[in-house]
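[Solved] Which block belongs to which protein?

Original post:
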Amino acid sequence: MRPKLTDVATKAGVSATTVSRVINNYGYLSQQTKDKVFQAMRELNYQPNSLARSLHGKKTLLIGVIFPSISNPFFAELVERIENKLFNQNYKIILCNSADNKEKERDYLRMLIANQVDGIIAGTHNLGIDEYNKVGLPIVSFDRRLSDKIPIVSSDNLRGTALATKEIYQAGARHIYFLGNPHQIGNPTDLRLQGYQQTIAKLKLTPHIHAVAFSESPTLKSLSIKKLLTQHHADGIVCTDDLTAILVLQAARNLKIAVPQELKVVGFDGTAFIQEYHPELSTIVQPIDDIASLLVNILIERIDHAEQPLEQMQYILPVKLLRSQSTFYLDE
């Protein structure tokens, strides 16, 4: 049976009110009393109720973290960094995988509010959820415009695809395709398409956009990529994420298209996983550790100083190109 506060009080030889005061650090108590209560809590493996703490006006030290899926290496690494940084500041996380399901995300938001989390970090791909305007909690967003009142942290998406397009051009490609979501809905990631389009215009080339949705399965993406490579004369492809870029490399290999001689490919994300297991891929590297630090620091600042007005609504971090075998043949 789960131990109760009264069990701690009995074991420590104090009143239940004293145990509550120790847990909530309320009023003066001798160190001897505190030590007895903490020792009883350890022996009984008693965990204070976060909701009960919130009713006393205390922080729950819980943060809700909402992302589409941690099966994606980028989100997995980002969530890991966020969790580590929050843990180092005595916070724990409640992780919610929202996928592309609005109702699921709404349910998670309601659950986080019910659990009285101190704040939320959201990197969701679902848009048009009005609840974000009504949560009444400090929220920071990664790469998504959830509300006019929620600050956004992102990497330099515009410069990222500009660098990728230039890299492919300098490698000799002239029929450069953009492989990603062509829909512009006001998010920072929309700038990836704009970075490609602006660079193509400067190079006086013809833009080619091949639509692939982030939520599509690898099988559907592979079919679409195969169609692109067999029915169009693409000698360069700018991908909006590394997993899609790897599918392009696989399709090219199956179709006997030589990379980088006949086809140049650049991805986007540059996670440690990709760099270790697919070092052949040229990619745009997002500063994952810096993104996590900024998300956590902004959120904690909002938690600690909720009454202060936001000084900045958008934070953009620099990216860099990691050149490898998918754009230039590099000697070992």
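(Second protein starts here: sequence line, then its structure tokens.)
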Amino acid sequence: MPDYDREGLVSAWAFDGAGGARRIDWDEIRRGPPDGNGFDWIHLQQLDHAHGRTWLSDDSGIDPSIVESLNAAETRPRCALFDNGAFLNLRGINLMPYSLPDEMHSIRFWVEPRRIVSVRKRSLSAVGDFEDAIARGRAPRTQGEFVADLSMRLVDRMDTVITALAEDADELEELVLSATLSNLSPKVSEVRRVAIILRRYIAPQREALNHFSLEDAEWLSPRDRNRLREAADRVTRFAEELDSVRDRAAVIHDQMVERRAEQMNRSMLILAAVTVIFAPLTLITGLMGMNVEGIPGSQDPNGFWGVTVLAALLGVGLVAFLRAIRWL
């Protein structure tokens, strides 16, 4: 069942600027934040055009180009600064139940001096935890603290998944020389695929956070800027870790190819040795088995056993020869 109303409202909060917050409804949203140091946060679900008129597009007072960016289908992390606010698009790994580890969903923010409007496409566990913290009385005091806190929560979720991915790569490196290749190949492909997908979205997030920290606004304190840069630095480390996982997966794949080639060479060597051993024996038995006159030993009752012993001795001799030249 959807957790938003027909206009896409997921939740809305009014912050008093002193660490307190309370939920608000549409009436208070339309009236706007009261005078003082506080601000409002309106969290919306992205809706399609079939829903018709919405507050965001018709009543929010936000520039149509920014509304279009907030409702864009698929965008990479970025930040754009304007005279009256800042647009920030971030991605977060979804740790909600039944979600895949490579699912990175976007959340877009329009930050003004007295209001923050965010738009999601799918729910994010980091946002849910952030709202739980607000309900427990741990509310941000400024818009800068709001963005910094939520950014750190998004980064923390990345840490969990990327650490698990690195551990999977460690395990694959240990198994590459012993496990069955048919069982190992899908795991290597999956690790490499997830690393590539995450890297594609995580890398631009650093630039977006650093760019937002340059916003020249009173509500962005030096402490908030430092936290945003810290989040950007962690994202950089994650991107480097994903590069490492991707490269390690490529090395593991190369080792698997070499191991498969070695197995094929070994099999071909055995087949060649069997051919070398049995080709002379087949020639001898073929000659001795011809149904013509003059075959040596054809009238001797012990002829069969003589040929058998001769073939056995020749086979043993060929095996010894192949061992001597290290074919076997």
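Accepted answer:
You had them paired correctly. Confirming on the second one: The chain has two domains: 9-258, 266-324.
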